[in-house]
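WARN no homologs supplied; continuing
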Amino acid sequence: MIAAVGPGALDRTAGRVAGRGAGGPGGGSGLAGRSAGAGRPGKEGWASTVARPGLLGRLGGRARVTVVTAPAGSGKTVLLRSWISEAALSGRAAWVPVGRAERGPQHFWLAVLGALRQTAPGSALVQPLTAAPDTDGWAITERLLTDLAPLADRIWLVVDDVHELDPEALRQLELLVMRAPPQLRFVLAARHDVRLGLHGLRLEGELAEIRTDDLRFSLAEAAELFAAAAVELPAATVAVLHERTEGWAAGLRLAALSLAGHPDPGRFAAEFTGSERTVADYLLAEVLERQPDQVRRLLLRTSILERVNGELASLLTGDQGAERVLLDLEAASAFVVPLDASRSWFRYHHLFAGLLRLELRRTASPDEVAALHGAAADWFARHGYPVEAIRHAQAAQDWGLAAGLLADHWPGLYLDGQAAIIRELLAGFPVETRAADAELAAVAAGDELTQGSLEAAERYLGLAERASASVPDGRQGQAQLLLGIVRLLLARQRGDLPAVAEAAERLQGMTEAPEAAQPALGEELRALALISLGITEYWTTRFAEAMQHLDQGRALAHRIGRPYLEFTGLAYQAAAEFFQSFAVATEHSRLSIELAEQHGWTDDPAASIACITLGTVLAWQERLEQADAWVQRAGRTLRAEAQTTQRMLLAHARGVLELARGQDAEALAAFRAVEPLAGQLAGPNLLILGMRAFQIQAQVRLGQTEDAEQALAEFDDHDRDFGEPRVATAVLRLTQGDPHAVTAALAPVLDGSAPMICPPWLAQAFLLEAITRDALADEGAAGRALERALDLAEPGGALLPFLLHPVSGLLERQARRGTAHAVMIAEILGLLAGNRPAAMTGRPRLPAEPLSGSELRVLRYLPTNLSAPEIAGELYVSPNTVRTHIRSLYAKLGTHQRAETVTRARDLGLLAPSAGGAR
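OK structure emitted
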């Protein structure tokens, strides 16, 4: 039997805390709002000043019976009092509080008669009755039904704490409810459901129910409550208290009482738990101490758990009926919350759980508490809940068990993207344990890598390797597996491709060996190895191999259900595709970001890569406000000790953005930040070439030609032959008025003999060639070079070169002479005239199914005036193929017309923005 909590509990507690009496009918605690009037409930308080019109409307609705069911302190009585006051029902509402004295039929019905006689309609109909020892409740009920039969005016019988009635009185109340005249309405408040046979009323629509969730205070209502109590709190503090109390009215009121005059409300809110004095007093006196010994023992011994089920509760209590107790507690709304639809797992209200843990520490010895944690750790480990098992093993200070569990489950946790949980679990070990245990040291090394700290990772890896010899034979395979994964991740982070390839091969061998520690991880580790290879190949500018391995790893991760690996591969695939297709890079960046948001990985390093890629593409496309938002988001995501390569990419993205804005000094500072980072990589990185070439352009734009010359001289002979340094050379020579030197620098780029790391730079090379040929009065060559620059820029909307090197006259002449890029020329001229695209008000949703490469190629031609047959001719495919792709584009983008499809594609970043703000 779950004990109910007596009426008036909150006010008695509040009165003790505030040093005031709780007050009788019409009285108050000194903090009262509005009273329901003489003879009405005495539970006063400023909670009644909080407007709750939705609940008040339900109390005065069409239903003949309204049941209000919620645990102690939920605000039932305050709500009923407020309703009577607001609706001006003091003359038509008969209030009957059920205390210990009114549990039996005789006392209860005498109270009902007395309350009904105080109403205006009831005073003329209900006859007085003098109590006698043989007074029968059934007879009183029948007499009351006879007295009220002619009732013409509506009255309400409000019974508070119905659960206190004994079974006979309940059956008599049920009789009254079922046979009462239509004008008699009932409002019944209880701590838990009572057996009143109201199912028929529910089917007839004559029953209204207000339950715990309905009575929880919203955040706005909590703020209103504190304001009514003259407690001024910042919104953030109110939000913390609302979360801690879970909207429980009594918890909020007790917090307000404690906060009156408190010097540090923020600290109070952060520390407010069930062990806070006012809350503990209330919960102890009115909830815990009223429970039978069996229930109290279960609550205390299971309070060590974040969640509990029947089997676990039975283990900790030795009581095989524990599950029934939990179900009864939940049914009674006694601060027990079900966590699943089948009501098999439960948790305790946050404040109640805090009190239970405090009381357990007070009444049990440390050894008893440790034994409970040890038993819980064993149960969770056996049932496949490793994180909870590790936490309880740590609480029991069983470091060997905790370390072994974490070592066994770290690969799976890492592959699931649970870096924050891993870090939290590691923090639960003493520092000396992390350093002395080989497997735990390997896990710590992996954790440091996710935080971007290479030095700390290498230190822990060294400890793990030195201690690995002392690992028992039965765990040698697991220790070597952990070391293999960490070596792979470390080599990947350092951009050391040979080391990554070697580590990947060794790791694959470990998982395929007959004595493999975790053979089930074979495909997961193969996907990790493929993605790690692809990432490292990306850093070393082997883009074709990178995209192949990333695509294979991502597909495998998707097939085996490892979304974190899929997300990581997709983010780096987008980064690699930046050098092939802006449209595909944009689409994959957005898909990767959506996966991160869906799974809570927005702070993961791979998410920052996707944001950087998207921001850089948008900067090249001159969509500067959107680019800035993504670059800033990446900056917020990256930690100060983030991976070197990510910090390099972020600095480069900031530099491109500032260059596009015309903020050349800021751009130069950003590009210069790349140089010291490059020295931390395992070897030379060709990605640095583009960054250094951009730095030279910024120096030229600032008039720092001597510094630019010095920077060019610092390229070695091998690097100087790449396309990006040659383009930077051409920019400098053009500024110096040496067109012949420009053409000499560009010739190997234009004929393809000088390799280009970043294809978008090729459009800039042809644009510089056009400017130079025009200066040499070769209009034909200038026009051909400009058209080629437009050819290269249009598919990805790479407008940046035309803004860095404005040539309005050349573009206008090209438009007059005939061009396949009239729309793009108009866009560029609009940007040069200051007509930048308007910022998007929100990020549009991506298509449910990604666009294929063929669809993207057709999409790029839709902004032009070319017909489907003409597009087919450009792409060397049949017109029917083009029409099929267009229909597919309509379906995937949710559009119906060509113009609508272009607008939608611009919003998604799949096409460059149009002039004058249209997208």
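Strands lie at 65-69, 93-97, 155-160, 184-190, 207-210, 308-309, 336-338, 345-348.
OK
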